[in-house]
Amino acid sequence: MPAPPEVICLTNGVFAENCYIVADRDRGEAVLVDPGEEADLFLARLRSERLELQGIWLTHAHLDHVLGVRPVVERSGVPVWLHPDDRPLYDRMPDQAAAVLGVDLPAPPPPDRTLAAGDLVRVGDCEFEVRHVPGHSPGSVAFVGHGVTISGDVLFAGSVGRIDLPGGDGEALLHSIREQLLTLPDDTVVYSGHGPATTIGQERRTNPFLTGAYRLS
Ligand SMILES: [Zn+2]
Ligand SMILES: [Zn+2]
Fold first, then answer.
1. From the CA of 153, how far away is ligand 2's center (Å)?
2. Which CA distances in Å does 210 have to 22, 28, 179, 181?
């Protein structure tokens, strides 16, 4: 049995986005999940941890999760994984940057690999299952394995993802959470795209959007 992967959270940028380093320490290999604004921070941390970057896994293609893709790829040459249903969003990244930040940015390089439900992705000897969790965006995915899920902006501690952005769908979001995330064991640690980590059990018991206390609208 390989040792479980290590997950390092790097909260960064004006969006307070959580980029994650997922590492197989024994092999000294890592991937970056959702490299947001501060590419220098991610690359410096990989260096100081003596981890070799193998790829970029994207939970979805909103601006705050992909701002660092181009600078990281330019400096490391690693491949990028994305679900095809978020490809239109990904390709509109310069429009997202202009609209949200008022800046001109070049498009990120095209993704090299596609993610699909049921795929297994690997960092070192550690495998994660890909689950398709649309609703916050059409191509949102969660990476599941080793007692954790890294699930982007789908489920947060005490909240759920926005559905008012292009491609958002509240019914789909709740369906994704119930079918793909709440089916995981209660002690599964949820690493979200923003805010602190939580667990499936904690959210099942107390998340007001899941207990029925609040309605998504
Ligand atoms: Zn998002
Ligand atoms: Zn986000």
1. 5
2. 28, 38, 12, 12
